[in-house]
Amino acid sequence: MKVTARLTWREEKMLERLLGNASLTLLYQSNVHKNCILEMTQKCCLQGSTVTVFHLKKGVIVGVFMLEDFPTVDSEKPCTCAWFSLKKNNSSGIPALFLSTRVTVRSTDLIIFPRSVLSLGARPFRGFTLSLHDTVRKELELSLESGLLSVECEIFRVDGIKKDPGFIKKMVTADQHRGKLLSALRAYKPYKDLVSEVRILLVGPVGSGKSSFFNSVKSAFQGHLARQAIMGFAESGITKQYRVYSIKDAKSGETLPFMLCDSMGLKEGEEAGLCIDDVPHILKGYVPDRYQFNPCEPIKQKHYTASLPLKDRIHCVAFVLNINSVNTLSDKMVAKLKKIRKDVVDCGVGHVALLTNVKDYDEVLDDNFVNMTETVTSLSQVQNVQNMLNIPIANILMVSNHASERRLEPVKDVLILAALRQMLRAADDAFEDLSLEDTSTLAPV
C-alpha cells in the first residue's frame, strides 16, 4: 500500500533546502504503520540519515534530523542532530538548532536529548505524545503549552547529503542567516529617507554576471528561481538595453526600496559594448528605462540641460567581474573600468566590486556567517581588484549567482543578500556625504 506523506510538498522542499538540497523518502507514518517503537525501528534503522517529523496541532511541526543511522530498539547512541520547527504557510525560514544529541530507543519510548537534559520524548503506546523542554521550545520559537502533546509522527530517509557534521551545521546556519538577511533588507530604509528607492547600477564586462545577479536577488525574495532578465554568453553580450528593475517581495507583496539597473556589457573595442562616455549620463539619471544602447553613437550632452533630482540618479555602482578572469583582464578593459570609477567618484556615488562565479561559495563565509573571508584560491583576485579600482576589501564582495541549478541554495542566497546589503550601505555612506547643493535638488519622495 502506497502511503502519502502528511508533510506537504512545500514543507518537504523547505526541509530539503535546509539540509543542503537533499531528498526525502517516507519510511514510517504512525497512523499507518502501527503506534509502536518496534515497527518504527524495523522500518527506519540501517537506512542512513533520517529526519523525524512530529505534526502538532494548529499546523505546527517539530522535527529532528539525524546524520547517523536511526537507533535500534533498546539502544542509546550519540548523534549529530539538527532540530527545527515549521509552521503552516510560513515560507520565511525555519527556526533550527544544531546540537550534539543522544538518542535513546526503548520498547515504549523514543527520547532525544542534548547534554543530559530531557528535550524531546515520544511515547507511542497510547498514540504518539510529545514532551518538549522549555529551552528548546523557546529556541525553536514555539508558543506551545507544556506537558504532553498529541502528535502524528513521520520518519523520512534523507538521500544526497554529505556525511559531514560541519557541512550540516553550515547548512542549518545558512538557512537561519538567510532569514535574518531577508528580514533586514525588507525593513531597510534609505539614509534619512532622502529617496524612496536606492538605484544600484551593475556595470562590467560582457558575460560577467550582471543580469544573473539581478535574477538571483529576485529569486531570493520570491522564494523560487526567477529568470526575468535575459542571460547568456554571446560574445557580443545579451543585454542591449538599459533596464531598471524593481523587486517585489513575495512575503508582503510590496515593492522593495531598491532597484537594480542593468547595463550593456563592456568590451575592449572602442565601438563595441557599452560606450564609457554614456556612463556619466546614466549616473546622473538621464538615461530612461529600456534605452537602446548604440556603441557607435554615444549619448550627446546637449540632449540634457536640467539637473535631475536625487531620486532619479544612480546611488551605488557595482563593478561586476567574473572572478575567474580578473587576473587576465586586458589593459584596455582595465583602462575602461578605471575611467568609469573616476566618473563614479566625481559624481559622489557609492561603489563596490562584485566578484561572480565563485566556485567554493560554501567556504567564503566563516562558520558564524559574520565575516566574508578570502580563501587561498581567491585571495590574489581580491587583491588585484583592490589595486585596480582602489576599492576597500570590505567592499569587494563574492557571490555565486543562481544560474544553472533548478532550486535555491541557502549559502548562495546568503552571499547574494549580504552583497546587496553592502551595496545599500555604500549608497547610505554616499547619501551621508552629500553636499548642501546636492540635497537642495531633492524631489519629494
How would you describe this protein?
With 445 residues, this protein is of the alpha+beta class. The protein contains ten helices and 17 strands. A hairpin with a 4-residue loop joins strand 5 and strand 6 (110-114). The chain has helices at 9-18, 37-44, 134-139, 165-186, 210-222, 279-283, 331-346, 379-389, 410-432, 436-439, and strands spanning 23-29, 50-55, 60-66, 75-87, 96-105, 110-114, 120-123, 129-132, 149-150, 152-159, 198-203, 241-248, 255-262, 291-292, 316-322, 350-356, 396-398. The strands form two sheets. It has a ten-stranded antiparallel β-sheet, with helices on both faces. The chain has a seven-stranded mixed β-sheet with strand order 14-12-13-11-15-16-17, with helices on both faces. Helix 4 (165-186) runs parallel beside helix 9 (410-432) and helix 5 packs across helix 9. It has two domains: 9-160, no CATH class; 188-433, Rossmann fold, CATH 3.40.50.300. The model is unreliable at 233-237 (pLDDT under 50).
Q: How many H/I helical runs?
A: 10
Q: CATH fold name of the largest domain, please?
A: Rossmann fold
N-to-C SSE series? HEHEEEEEEEHEEHEHEEHEEHEHEHH
Q: Can you tell me the CATH architecture of the largest domain?
A: 3-Layer(aba) Sandwich
CATH class of the largest domain: Alpha Beta
Strand content: 15-25%
- Tell me the domain tally: 2
Which SSEs are present, and which pair or pack?
Layout: H1 9-18, E1 23-29, H2 37-44, E2 50-55, E3 60-66, E4 75-87, E5 96-105, E6 110-114, E7 120-123, E8 129-132, H3 134-139, E9 149-150, E10 152-159, H4 165-186, E11 198-203, H5 210-222, E12 241-248, E13 255-262, H6 279-283, E14 291-292, E15 316-322, H7 331-346, E16 350-356, H8 379-389, E17 396-398, H9 410-432, H10 436-439
Parallel strand pairs: 11-13, 11-15, 15-16, 16-17
Antiparallel strand pairs: 1-10, 2-3, 2-10, 3-4, 4-5, 5-6, 6-7, 7-8, 8-9, 12-13, 12-14
